[in-house]
Specification:
- By secondary structure, the chain is mainly β.
- It has a domain of about 200 residues: Beta Barrel (Porin).
- Strands 3-4-5-6-7-8-9-10-11-12-13-14-15 form a 13-stranded antiparallel beta sheet. A two-stranded antiparallel sheet has the order 1-2.
- A hairpin with a 4-residue loop joins strand 12 and strand 13.
- The two termini are about 25 Å apart.
- The model has no long low-confidence stretch (mean pLDDT about 90).
């Protein structure tokens, strides 16, 4: 469980009028340092090096007592998976983190929690992109490489759209589908990984919209301080049949964490530069 008192302020410039807009809020907030959650998990040894497991995890808000991040009842939308693991790796079915989100959170000293989180997290999780598959994808079949590959690791994930396809129907849709992968190398103090994901957000006769995410992250633990860095690009690709528009969000993060007793002092700076594919307008949204 986690709670924090926070003050946040944001400001920006209206690209049409040139006016500066400012918002601020003081609040008792949930998950200021880490996500509050409730979970159940278990593993059964099947013999011969095989094991089966399940994982159910839900979010709750201890600031107001509601049972999920959206204020509804408790559910298992954080993660709900069953797995079969062995010398071949792990096959995991259900709702889980996407490969591209793993890079965002692993190579962010704040773990994409609280006001210090990487700005690309705020952009990718915003209503403007409306990408339900940014952080987690449902109906997912995932494969994870075994852990004995000399430091190399990786995963591939495919999220089914669960839409009903009718033979010879022009209205068949792939909306909700996700495909992605992540591959990296971790040895001693070094950890580096690259990932890519493609989410189909809209797929109708009139329009199609896909969100493409690619990032490269690394961390290096020097002992007294651990350094973090990440480069990200998110492309919101819209096709109305008359025109194709690619809005781009380019992000970088530099950060560090310093162990102090049982805790950590964390610091980071991240910035997103937006490129409007329709108007040719660019801007930036930095956050320290």
């Amino acid at each position: 469980m986690d709670a924090a008192v926070s003050y946040q302020t944001t400001s920006g410039r209206d690209l049409t009028t040139g006016a500066t807009l400012t918002q601020s809020q003081t609040a008792l907030r949930n998950s200021g340092y880490n996500a509050s959650r409730l979970g159940l998990r278990g593993t059964e040894d099947l013999g011969g090096g095989l094991s089966a497991s399940f994982w159910l995890e839900g979010a709750f808000n201890n600031d107001d007592g509601t049972g999920s991040a959206t204020g509804g009842g408790l559910n298992w939308q954080r993660r709900s998976t069953v797995s079969l693991a062995g010398g071949f790796g792990e096959l995991r079915l259900g709702r889980d983190y996407t490969p591209t989100y793993w890079n965002d959170t692993v190579f962010d000293p704040f773990g994409t929690s609280g006001s210090g989180a990487n700005v690309i997290y705020s952009v990718s999780n915003s209503s403007g992109l409306a990408n339900a598959n940014y952080m987690r994808s449902s109906n997912t079949l995932a494969y994870f490489l075994p852990s004995n590959l000399g430091g190399f690791y990786g995963q591939v994930s495919y999220g089914l759209n669960k839409n009903v396809d009718v033979s010879n129907a022009a209205t068949n849709s792939n909306a909700g589908r996700y495909a992605g992968g992540r591959f990296g190398y971790a040895n001693g103090p070094l950890d580096v990984a690259a990932s890519y994901g493609l989410s189909t957000a809209v797929d109708t006769i009139a329009s199609r919209r896909e969100v493409q995410t690619a990032n490269l992250g690394a961390s290096y633990d020097l002992g007294p301080v651990k350094l973090f860095g990440e480069l990200s690009r998110v492309v919101n690709k819209s096709d109305s049949g008359l025109a194709t528009v690619d809005d781009k969000y380019d992000d970088y993060l530099l950060g560090a964490s310093v162990p102090v007793g049982a805790g950590l002092i964390r610091a980071s700076y991240s910035s997103v530069r937006f490129g409007d594919g329709a108007a040719g307008v660019t801007g930036s949204d930095p956050r320290a």
